[in-house]
Amino acid sequence: YETMAIHIHEYGDESEGCMSLGGHWNPSNKNHGSFFKDKENSHAGDLINNLYPPKDGSGDYFLFYYDDRIQLYGNVLESIIGRSVVIHSGIDDLGLGGNEESLKSGNSGERKACSIIGHMKKKV
């Protein structure tokens, strides 16, 4: 597996596949950046920016992540329920690419996979 960017996007609308999900979720209207470099000046949807799965493809890949800017409940404008997760083809440059697209998306590349963040049916 190769390094790839991961972000939360604005909408949970897959009517046009991954392309109808809008841009990165950015409730505070910040430039694209990194949780690890300057959390207060980055999109809440930037997440951890990049995934680094094992190069040999072995084992399972688990992601444990905590970010107090992201909620799974409460006010719909502040919650990520109904939004989406997108995995991009490229590596996120953390907003340091020196161009306008870097400040919006980290030059992350095309959308390779996506999923809606929602409620699941309770299992019996």
Identify the notable features of this structure and list them briefly:
124 residues; globular; mainly beta; four-stranded antiparallel β-sheet
Helix and strand arrangement:
Elements (H helix, E strand, L loop, with lengths): L3 E6 L5 E4 L16 H4 L10 E3 L32 E5 L11 H6 L5 E6 L8
Antiparallel strand pairs: 1-3, 1-4, 4-5
Description:
The protein is globular and about 50 Å long. 8% of the residues lie in helices and 19% in strands. The chain is mostly beta strands and 124 residues long. The model has no long low-confidence stretch (mean pLDDT 87). The chain has helices at 35-38, 100-105; strands spanning 4-9, 15-18, 49-51, 84-88, 111-116. A 4-stranded antiparallel sheet has the order 3-1-4-5, with no helix packed on it.
Would you kindly provide a brief summary of this structure?
By secondary structure, the chain is mostly beta strands.
Radius of gyration: 14 Å
Structural class: mainly beta
H and E order: EEHEEHE
* Tally of individual helices: 2
Main sheet attributes: strand count, strand direction, barrel closure: 4 strands, antiparallel
β-strand amount:
15-25%
Average pLDDT, rounded to a whole number, is 87
Q: Tell the overall outline.
A: globular
